Amino acid sequence: MRSALNLAQNDEDTDRVDDPTLLKQAMVRVAKEQDRDAFHFLFSYFAPRVKAVLLKAGSSESQAEDLMQDVMMTVWRKAKLYAPERGSVNAWVFTVARNARIDLLRRASSRPYDDVYEIELESDVASGEDEMFETERAERVSEALAELPEEQRQIIELGFIEDMSQSEIAEKLDLPLGTVKSRMRLAYGKMKSKLEAVR
What we know:
Elements: H1 2-11, H2 20-33, H3 36-56, H4 61-77, H5 89-109, H6 115-121, H7 129-132, H8 135-146, H9 150-160, H10 166-173, H11 177-197
Keywords: Sigma factor, Transcription, Transcription regulation
Family: Belongs to the sigma-70 factor family. ECF subfamily.
GO molecular function: DNA binding; sigma factor activity
């Protein structure tokens, strides 16, 4: 396996090194030995893929980059939690990415109204990124957002693109906090109805 990892790193072409067994062996080495070569291999393989699906899911470039770094650090720190018998490395890594994305949305909104995004982010991750953040689903979220009234869309965009809390949004727009919460609640309701109608 050492030679396979080195080959991938020297060629900088991990797209071709997608053998599930090789990925699993690398993860086990990170978990048991904190092997930096194995982690470099995993990072080179997963980092661009994780970032790509986060962008498809609606993250901004900076958010996707930051989340990708967080995800890969979690892979390094918590590799011991990976259980080979429970699924593929792809499934585990993209579950970490999904959870990181949902956590970000919850922190940004500071409220339990992220159901609409959880609907779009939830998927069977058994086969990896293709089933986690499908382009069609991301497009449906964008379409639903575009159909919102300007005053509601602005609040959603500030919360999820600018990563602002409700209090920060209220201050920026010079609105009462209650108004921000009300508009956000209405926006979520409309988006959820729209997305459920096309499922």
